[in-house]
Amino acid sequence: MEVADWIAANAARTPDKPALRAAGETLCYAELAGRCDAIAAALAAAGIARGGCVAWLGLNGADMLATLFACARLSAIFMPLNWRLAPPEHRAMLHDCPPALLCVDEHFAAASAEAGIAPAGTHCIALGAVPAGWECWDDFIGAGNTLQVTDALANAETPLLLCWTSGSTGRPKGVVLTQGALAANADASVDMHALTADDRVLTTLPLFHVGGLNIQTTPALRAGCTVTLHAKFDPVDAFDAIARDRITLTVLVPAQLEAMIAHPRWNGADLSSLRAISTGSTMVPARLCRAVHARGVPLIQVWGATETSPIAACLHAGEALRKVGSTGRAAAGCELRIVDAEGQDVPTGASGEVLVRGRNVMSGYWRDEAASRRALAGGWFHSGDSGHLDDEGFLTIDGRLKDMIISGGENVSPAEVEAVLLDCPDIAEAAVVGRPDERWGEAVVAVVVPAPGATLTAEGVQALFGGRLARFKHPKDVLVVDALPRTALGKLRKEDVRQLVAARMAAVAGKHEEQVAWRSR
Fold this sequence. Notes:
Blueprint: H1 6-13, E1 18-22, E2 25-28, H2 29-45, E3 53-57, H3 62-74, E4 77-81, H4 87-96, E5 101-104, H5 109-115, E6 123-126, E7 135-136, H6 137-142, E8 159-164, E9 174-178, H7 179-193, E10 200-203, H8 210-214, H9 217-223, E11 226-229, H10 235-244, E12 249-251, H11 254-262, E13 276-280, H12 286-294, E14 299-304, E15 311-314, E16 329-330, E17 334-339, E18 352-358, E19 364-365, H13 369-375, E20 381-389, E21 395-400, E22 405-407, E23 410-412, H14 414-422, E24 427-437, E25 441-450, H15 458-463, E26 477-480, H16 494-510
Parallel strand pairs: 1-11, 3-4, 3-5, 5-6, 6-7, 10-11, 10-12, 12-13, 13-14, 25-26
Antiparallel strand pairs: 1-2, 8-9, 9-19, 14-15, 15-16, 17-18, 18-20, 20-21, 22-23, 24-25
C-alpha cells in the first residue's frame, strides 16, 4: 500500500475513529481523508503534478500533515522548513530547491513576506493574515472544490519528502526520501513499538524533522492509531495530554525529558497509560533513563539520521532496562556495519564508522551528486557517527568521527567524557571538544551548564573523573556557560561549541584580568 493510500484505507475501515487531535479540533479518519482530498484537489488546480514541490513553514498542524499525504497522491514532493531558522536560511533552502508553492502559517507569514524568502515564480499562501501579494489558504483550498483529482501513479521509488539536515556538522543538505523509504520506516516503527491501531500517540516534536514526523506520527496514521498533535512542546500540555487522552506512546528527546523531569508534576503525574517513551537525536544521559524507568515506563532509544528516515537502530521495551545506554539493534529491514578508515569491518566491541543499508535510506541529496556518492558509497549510508556493536549486536554510539580528540597519541571519545559529566545531577548540559595543545596535540575541554540552583567550579567538575576514566581523558579545561548551542531537535552544534571555546581562550589570553570559570589540570 502506497503512502497516498494510508489515510483513505483507514477511512474505509474505521471512518468514525479519531485520527488526529490538533488545536482543539478532532478529525476522524473520514474527515482527515476528506481534508487530504481537498488539499490534493487544490494543489492539482494550481498545477502541482509529479515532481512538483510544495514547501511548508509553520508549527505542527493538521493541514501540514494532510498536505504531505496530498503530495503523495500527486507524486509531488513535500518540503517542510525549520521554523526556528532565520529568514536568510529559509531563503537559501528555497532557492536551492524552488517550490511551486510555499505555504506559511500565521506565526511566520509576515516576517517571511517582508524578508522575501520565496524565489521568483513561487506562489505564496498564508494561513491567517495575508501579506500583500499572497493568497489566503482558505481561498486556495476553495479553488479546487470542483476538481476531480486523478492520482498520479506512485511507486516505492517516487520522491515524497525533502527534509533539510540539521546543519549540526556543516551547511544543511536537502535529503530526498521516497515513498518506499517512509513505508519501510513505518515497518520499523511498528516493530520497534509493537504498534497497533489501539495505540494513542502524542507528538510534540516539530514535524519539519523526520524525528517528529516519522518515528511515530506517520507510522501511527498508517496503523490507524489516534494521534494527538501539539503545535510545539510545552511540559504542562504534555502532562495534560498524556493523562487526558490516555497516551500509550510518545517521543521525547533528552531536552524535553529534562524539562518534564524537572517539573513539579513529574513525580505525581499520571503516566499509567504509557507503554513506552522513545528518545534519541543526541546522547541520552543514564540519569534520564533511571528517572523514567523509576516511573515504571520503559525508555527506548532510537538511532538514525535524516538520511535514514530516521529509524536505523532501536531498542524494544523489553530491552530498555537491560541495555541502558545502547541504541539497540538494527531496526527491522535494516543492516548495520562498523568499519575502519579503510572500510573494513572491525571486530565486535571495536569502534568505527556506523554504516546503514535498507529501504529506509535516502535516494540522495538534492542536486548534490558528489555528496550523494560519498554518503552512499558501496550501497551503504555512511553516517559519520562512530559506534561499536556488542556480542549481541546492540549498537552504542561513541560520537561523531570528526569529533574524536587525539591527545598525546591516544583517542578520546567525547561521548565517553560527556557521559561522566551528565551523570552528575549538578550538570544540566555538557559538551566535550578538543583544543590545540603544544604538548599533547589536543587537550580535552568540558563545556558545562549548571543545573538550576547548582554552582560549578572547574575543580569540582574535574574531580568527577577520578577513578572513572584514564587520566588522559580528563578535561584539562572547564568552561561554565548558561546554555549550549543546539539544533531544533536538541543536537549539540559542536562547531559552535568549538568556536565558543576558541573565543573564550582568545579572551583569556588577551585579558588576563577577566574572571572566567577556566582552570587547567
